[in-house]
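Table S2 (text version). Query chain:
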Amino acid sequence: FDGVEHVMNDTLTSNEELRSYSSIDAWFSRPQTHEYILWYGKQRVDVKKIPLRCIVTDTSISRKYLQDDYPDAENNHELSHFRWLPKDIQVFSNEINIYDNKMAIVCIGKKELLGIIIESESIVETQKSIFEVAWRASEKSMWELNI
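Corresponding structure-token output:
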């Protein structure tokens, strides 16, 4: 867990928007990671005010959290923009954040907790391009559709 926390805390130093792939269900699967991700969201939104675009797994847990409990929900997700991973794609248990010249990967799977940071301008530029393709192909969230 210390590695996951260290890697995620590094994303709070970002000087640009975070581009992220996330699984709320994975974060909520353990009390320790659940508590941490609630703290992290408040830090990113309320304290650091770091913008985010995130492709997230589309589950009832994700929808409830993002609609009712997410720190930016009251402001209609001004800093936080979400799109849904298509439902026919297998749910994953990692979070990937792409920012500055870094890519932070945390595994929050049932059998492992770990985090790594890759610092490489060329790898990150490629990952940013791949994220843009995925963002354009992902399903718009209820906030983008003004539902």
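Notes on Table S2: The chain has five helices and seven strands. The first strand starts at residue 18 and ends at 22.
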